[in-house]
Amino acid sequence: MNRPAAEPRIRGILIDLDGVVRFWRRQGATAAEAELDLPPRTLSAYTSSRHSDAAHTGALTWGQWAAGVRERMAAGLGAESADRAFALWSADRGEPNAPMVALLRRARAAGLTIALLTNNTTILDSDLAHHRLDDLFDHVLNSAATGLTKPSPRAYEHAVATMGLSADQVAFADDSDINTDAARTVGLHAHHFREPGGTDAFEQHLAGLGVILPGAPGRPTPPEPVKAVAPPPGHAEHDDHQSLRTHYLATGLPADAVAARLTNSAWAQATGEHTLASGDDDGHVTQWRLVPAGTEAAHAAGHPGAWMPQPAPPGAEYLPPWTAATRASAARHATALLTEAAAALTRTADAHRGGDRLSAALDLDTARHALTRLASMLARRQPRPWPDATSARYLGHAATTLLTASLRADPTTPAGLSHSVTALVHLLGRLRQSSALLLGAEAAWPWHDLERHLVPLLDATLTAPGPDVLYGAGLATAYDDHRAVAPALADALHAFASGHLAGRDVLELGAGTGRITAHLASGTSTYTALEPSPGMAALLTARNLPGVRLFLGTALAIPLPDASADVVVEHEALLFTDDPLAATDQALRVLRPGGVFVRLLLHARGDDPAADLDAAYRAAAFHGRPAPLITGKGTDHLVTTHLCARGLATTDTLLAEYDDHRTPAQALATLAARAWPYQQQADTEQHAAGMAAAEELAQTLPLAGGPVRYRLRALATRLETR
């Protein structure tokens, strides 16, 4: 009689994160201490405190805890040093332990259940996505979410129950002997992880439990530099003399890990989250640009953001594409947050009606926090902002204005409560619409009942802000007067339209006043212009361009059905969009199979004295204040990388190169008329300071000015024909 094979005793692995799957080398803190000439481990006094325990239990979010760290740094180091120290410290997100990651992937492929048990903060999901470890675990048990911290026995018991196993079926590893001892008391097969040799020792621990994993143990083969791709001849980053080379490399490793593996180089150093540099003994320098694993580096090498003055700051903008799973998760979060905000506003109204001012204020705070989280998720396309994100940079002008109006009102007074509630109602309406359009999310809440509850509280004097402060009526009136289309540019646009748009259904994103539209629309089958600013749209309508139909709306929710356009074109509109990657996804949605997404880019090459005047104005007008919103709002390089990650290649074509003449007097006139979008954010005092700085610099420039070389490029991404 044949007996059934015995079921393997070990069916799962429960693993710690920091010190096992991820290593912290204190690189950010060490760099800050060296740069600021501080004694070693000075920053530990500010980052290690009782507040970290509160963050590990979820009582504080990562953002709240980090704000406390920054305040303590400011108190001990001074504001300027604290800003730099905090930036370097918070940008450090550690590095994956590649051998252990490889072992866990082998174990999961062999059928074992893999779970993460970590005392961590609310930033964990973002960190796992950043290191591309979010697909490594079947279950993630984060103390900030569960409220259970190691070495509490309940933390282990909850983890094992979540895995659907018994304790004696689970192997456990942690770098803390206290946590390891506690795991043994619960019945787990615990292993104290130590480096060096920790991964090999853990695999031997598994073997002693009868688990023999397929595949050779050890470190996975790192990406070889020979597989990197250099830009082709004629490209802006191609160097015929090879004194400075550029290589694009598709890898899942962070820049510092790639730098450590360039053993053939005399030196190698990470210069950003997705960039590094290396050099040889002969003085040749190579700059490396990293694109996501699984994409075609050759695609990226053909169309990088060569016009970028410098690489994007670490972690500032790059957001990986949403998958179906993350989009579904975001929809669930949006539904929950909409419901939470609506319920809290209802309680606010009830408390106010009952005369309980404190309860009304506290419920109002709950509503504001829920809407802030929802706005952050929609703007950044992830549940929480990254450490270096600020609300002024990423929430968009409308959301920021409404949240600020709500926060500054005193909710313990009837007028203040009315003002604050009204601002949040406006914001709730905008976020409801965005959640429905972008995610298909809608809270199951009786909205008419909510409105009925809130009518007595609403402040009729507060209206929702316009679409965007950058493109209000003030800018619209001065815009075209300072942006003449040079004859060479007009000819290039006409030639492009004739060759690529004629006879097709075309959608233009961010058409503005129509100064570019006028040169593109002729000869198309249909031409739809989308513009979010009423002031700009009014000027476009006044042009009365034949065959052009105008929609007033945003690129984040294009009011067209799926597969309704042959070409989507934009001229530097994504630069001013709150979420350029979400707008890119919308553009792809409305394209038909075989359709083309075209980004037209006009850039000055070489010296441009007018640009120096603009920079002087900006520096003086915003000195000591937040940078204007246009700074860092997405780049063409990151949009291209986003498209690459979706398997879509982009071609980079030079359409025209020509000289144009602009005198310092003309540049000053443009600034005086406040004809640049960012100037709409400067008050009268700031504007005066900016003009004084620009006029002072203009006195040092030749009165006649000089020719400036411009290049018009087209980045074209074609959808596959299904």
Task: Determine the structural class based on helices, strands and strand pairing.
Answer: alpha/beta
How would you name the oligomeric state of the polypeptide chains in this document?
single chain
The helix content is 40-55%
| DSSP, total strands | 18
Shape: globular
Rg computed from alpha carbons, rounded to a whole number of angstroms:
28 Å
| Sheet having the most strands | 7 strands, mixed
Number of H- or I-type helical stretches: 28
Query: Which stretches of 5+ consecutive residues score pLDDT under 50?
Result: 1-7, 217-226, 302-319, 382-393
Overall mean pLDDT: 79
The amount of beta strand, in percent, is 15-25%
Distance between the termini: 56 Å
Order of strands, main sheet, comes to 14-13-12-15-16-18-17
Polypeptide structure, described:
Residues 1-7, 217-226, 302-319 and 382-393 have low confidence and may be disordered. The chain has 722 residues and is of the alpha/beta class. The protein has a seven-stranded mixed beta sheet. The relative contact order is 0.07. It is globular, with a radius of gyration of 28 Å. It has 28 helices and 18 strands.
Short overview:
The strands form four sheets. Strands 14-13-12-15-16-18-17 form a seven-stranded mixed β-sheet. Strands 5-4-1-6-7 form a five-stranded parallel β-sheet, sandwiched between helices. It has 28 helices and 18 strands. It is globular.
Which characteristics define this entry?
single chain; 18 strands; 7-stranded mixed beta sheet; 16% strand; disordered N terminus; 722 residues; globular; alpha/beta; 28 helices; 5-stranded parallel beta sheet
